Amino acid sequence: MLNVVNVTKRYCETKGIFNISFKVGEGEIICLLGKSGSGKSTLLKTLARIEEINEGSITYTNDEGHVGYVAQEYTLWPHLNVLDNLTLAPTVRGAHKKKVQQEALRLLERFDLVEYAQTPVQELSGGQRQRVAILRAVMNKSKVLLLDEITSALDPELTKSVLDLIRALSKDGYTMVISTHHMSFALSIADRIMFLKDGRVIQDRASAEFFFAQEDPEIKSFILDIAKKDEEIEVFRGKEQYQAYHLGLMRRLPCGSTIYIAGAVGDRWYAPMGDFYEQYEETRLKKGITWKMVMYEQGEIDLRLMKDYPKYNQFRKMPEDVQNPANYNVCGDTVITQIFDEEPTIIQIKNQKIADTYKRFFEELWRSAK
Amino acid sequence: MSMLEIIVEYKFLFLQGFLTTLELILAIILVGVPFGTLLGILGGRYSRSIAKCVRGLKFLTKVTPVLVLLFWLHYPLQALLHIVIDPFWTTVIALGGINMIATAFIVQSELELLPRSYRDAGKTLGLSKKQIVQNIELPILLRRIAPTIGLHQATMLEYTLFASLISVPELFRVAQTINSMVYDPVAVYSLLVIFFFILLAPFHVLISFLQSRYKMIYA
After folding, report:
1. What's the whole-number mean pLDDT along residues A2-25?
2. Are the beta carbons of B216 and A74 separated by less than 8 Å?
């Protein structure tokens, strides 16, 4: 769908994007992450052909010469109402006005905006404006959407409405390249994450792998930073918080529930729990909470638990051919990932859709595991 | 004499003053608005030197009182150049020039403020440069500048009063002449108020209409 080869856009010696190459398949969704000034917006602008590139090539298959691009600043034309914003470009390019209007109204209806069809755009809220801007890009008949930090100026409630719209469009098969700072959103929607630094792509990998199996200390710290700002994410750092979190989780979970655990390695989880592990285990067994694990390696404690309480400790070994380095737990509407550094860290994502996706992924792993 | 009697008695003189004021403001608008718009577009989009020049001239007009400029053009400049220009045209040159610089400044500033993202949005939606100018930038710009430029034209109309001081027979000058004949300043200057109301009211009604209709922030 999109092929980017050795693209360079240079503003000065150090500013711009340098030698970027990647491919995006049809229906694939890529999220761009990176600090401010890392080159995300420049990359999106070059993909949208707003910025001329100095070197390299950008090719779209099924290219009609235009893509859908929505920027972080509001781009709706203020002299037109919502409907006219949606229909201006197609009609100016020669499409039949009435047909285009009907199509626009159908689209507005689908996304609960039809009542605003005749409203001047400056009377819309920030979230409504960004949704209309996305729909205007959709009206362009392009199957590629380039979205640049479109929620950065919105409060959490409005952000949710915009992100829900993008999720709905992702199901329609749109190919998207999205720059965002919302970790939970990126996790729920992206197939791949590309991390940019100083105008270069320094990582391009599957989203779960990127967030949950990150080895690079700098990116790890970036993930923790954006996680702290995310409404749906909570970060717990240090031994005390780690222990308190797990004990609290045991108390919160209803009796008979199951924790799905993927990608665990040996006994390393137990060490930071220290003396509190016994209290945790006692509560778990009392409440009949099951650990269902697909593991890379089974440690001594794991083997003992399997032997003593097989009903509550269902462990399988990860098939060798499965590449799933991500370590995550799913329970109810929550996904937890843990980092076992000197300072153990838990990242908790409370989002039913993400939890469902990861649970489905876990079930597939479970079936293929021994 | 009552106001009505003064009007009947000096109707031709008043009419002449009224028409001179109208001609004056029309000439000032015709000189100022089209050339100012052109200069503003050149400065706002194509040439940084023109933009700097417009800003410099705008500063000069701010620090030079209109009356001083008018007198300077009427007496010292013409004496220096050994030419004689009709006071009517001296006024058109002075006020038309001020109007042109002000209009250029308004257009240029609005063009500089016009977010690039509107153009970019049009570009990514497959519109050509010409289509973007015609359908997006020009309509937005017109809506933004029309009330401000309109308001400025009303100010220019008020400035035409200064033309009376270099002997242009416009409304104020005519009123002064009639008053020197009838010695009834209350009636004569009250009539002047009415005439200026007739001239200025449509301007301000139009401006208010434009302001309310095109009340637009950049969305």
Report:
1. 88
2. no
Cβ-nearest to B135 among A48, A66, A92: A92
Contact present, A135 and A108 (Cβ < 8 Å): yes
Give chain B's length: 219
Q: What is the pLDDT of residue A326?
A: 66
Q: What is the pLDDT of residue B219?
A: 45
- Between chains, do B124 and A93 touch, taking CB under 8 Å as contact? no
Average pLDDT over residues A178-186: 83
Residue ranges of domains in chain A: 2-76+124-214, 233-368
- Distance (Å, rounded) from C-alpha A323 to C-alpha A361? 12
pLDDT-based confidence at residue A323 (cuts at 50, 70, 90): low
d(Cα B107, Cα B35) in Å, to the nearest integer?
11
Which CATH number does the domain A233-368 belong to among 3.30.565.10, 3.40.50.880, 1.10.8.60, 3.30.870.10?
Answer: 3.30.870.10
How close is the nearest chain B Cα to the Cα of A320, in Å? Answer: 46
pTM of the predicted model as reported, rounded to 2 decimal places = 0.72
CB A137 within 8 A of CB A69: yes
A71 has a chain B CB within 8 A of its CB: yes
Tell me the per-residue pLDDT of B63-89, one tens digit each, with 9 for 90 and over: 999 999 999 999 999 999 999 999 999
Domain B3-213: assigned CATH number: 1.10.3720.10
A73 touching B (Cβ < 8 Å)? yes
Report, at the CATH architecture level, how domain A2-76+124-214 is classified.
3-Layer(aba) Sandwich (3.40)
What is the Cα A214 distance to its own chain's centre?
Answer: 15
Sign of CA dihedral A172, A176, A181, A184: positive
What is the Cα A57 distance to its own chain's centre? 27
Parallel, antiparallel, or unpaired: how do β-strands A55-60 and A16-24 relate? Answer: unpaired
Assigned token pair, B27: 């000439």
Every domain of chain B and the residues it spans: 3-213
Rounded mean pLDDT, A174-195: 86
Interfacial B residues in 113-152 facing A (CB < 8 Å): 115, 117-118, 120-127, 131, 135-136, 139-140, 143
Q: Which of B118, B123, B218 sits opposite A50 (nearest CB)?
A: B123
Chain B: closest CA distance from residue A196 (Å): 23
How far is C-alpha B81 from the geometric centre of its chain's CA atoms? 27
Contact present, A48 and A146 (Cβ < 8 Å): yes
Burial of A290 (C-beta count, 10 Å sphere; 0-12/13-18/19+): middle
Do B20 and B171 contact (CB within 8 A), yes or no?
yes
Cβ atoms of B111 and B50 within 8 Å: the answer is no
Task: List B145's β-bridge partners, or say none.
Answer: none
- Kindly report the average pLDDT of chain B as a whole number: 91
**Contact call for residues A56 and A4 (beta carbons, < 8 A):** yes
Which of B126, B136, B216 has the CB atom closest to A66's CB atom?
B126
Provide the token pair at A263: 């990608």
Task: Quickly list H helices, A213-273.
Answer: 217-229, 239-252, 270-273
**Chain B residues in contact with A92 (beta carbon < 8 A):** 127, 131, 135
Say if strands A55-60 and A68-70 run parallel, antiparallel, or are unpaired: unpaired
How far is the CA of A132 from the CAs of A45, A180, B71, in angstroms? 20, 18, 57
